[in-house]
Amino acid sequence: MPKLKFGLAIPAWVWLLVFFVAPIFMVIVFSFGYKPSIFATHALDHLSFDRYLEALSPTFFSTFLNTLWIGILGTALCLVIGGPVAYWIAVKAPPSKRGLLLALVMVPFWTNFLVRTIGWQVILAPEGWLSQLLQGIGVIPGPLDLLYSRGAVLLGVVYNYLPLMILPLFVAFDRVSGPLREASKDLGANSVTTFLRVTVPLARPGIIAGVLLVYIPLMGDYITATVLGGAKGNMIGQVVASQFQTAQNWALGSAMAVLLIIVIMLSIAVAAGLLWLVTLPLRQRNRLVLGEGS
């Protein structure tokens, strides 16, 4: 029986090795190479860390910081916006309407990612209908100056990745049974205390899953930055893509990609450590000490 279980997992392991481990290994190897000439993409006869030093130069380091800022703030906005929506669908909405509401959440995914982002380019254009509407009602004195900025990129990533936050949060909130919330209220807790002391701790795995599902792909996104960011909204994924596709400097692009992976892993580790420290007093306060009253 154990051999049968291992055999069933072989296709998944092969897929993981071929399409994840092998490409990552190749990128790491290329990052130690260099671009030998204008017509060659890379060479590996002389390995060094020079491409990493080049990737960390002030020219590209500011793009890393901008990417980190957009990634953290975009994920936080998705959590703040998606949390109440997911909670309302899972707890407050009639069960007969939840399927329809989840389908509406998924509607943006029926359209290509690039097409959705270009749609926001049309909306945010200075001569677009949104700009004309805001000028018509007196909200802004002149054309809307939001396109090709960090604000436009932030708006685009929140729109594109918000469903990835709502879906795992919905599943997490839906699994918190109603009797638990009712028991909390019977013990004297109000709605806010019940949500913070009962619902959120039980939904923590879904919250973590939603944050990771949004933060990791958002950090590597280059379509949104290319379409909506311009020079002010550069993200490192856009620079990595340009090194591979335009500059044909695979070594520098690989070094940037490896650094991006490291930044993502370190930021997740830091966030996990901060969360553990913040929740430590609460866990100690809620710990049940057996035999305390004996």
Describe the structure in your own words.
The chain crosses the membrane at residues 12-34, 68-89, 101-123, 152-173, 194-216, 250-278. There is one protein chain. The chain is mainly α and 294 residues long. Among the domains are: 68-229, MetI-like (MetI-like fold, Orthogonal Bundle); 235-267. The chain contains 13 helices and no strands. It has helices spanning 2-30, 50-55, 58-92, 95-106, 113-124, 129-136, 150-175, 178-186, 191-202, 204-219, 223-229, 236-245, 250-286. Helix 7 packs antiparallel against helix 10 and helix 7 crosses helix 11. The termini are far apart.
Strand tally is 0
The Cα radius of gyration reads: 24 Å
The CA-CA distance between the termini, in Å, is 48 Å
| SSE order | HHHHHHHHHHHHH
CATH architecture of the domain at 68-229: Orthogonal Bundle
> What structural class is derived from the secondary structure elements?
mainly alpha
CATH superfamily of the domain at 68-229: MetI-like
Topology:
Layout: H1 2-30, H2 50-55, H3 58-92, H4 95-106, H5 113-124, H6 129-136, H7 150-175, H8 178-186, H9 191-202, H10 204-219, H11 223-229, H12 236-245, H13 250-286
Helix pairs in contact: 1-13, 3-7, 3-10, 5-11, 7-10, 7-11, 8-9, 12-13
Keywords:
Spermidine/putrescine transport system permease protein PotB, MetI-like fold, disordered C terminus, MetI-like, 13 helices, 294 residues, mainly alpha, MetI-like_sf, transport, globular, cell membrane
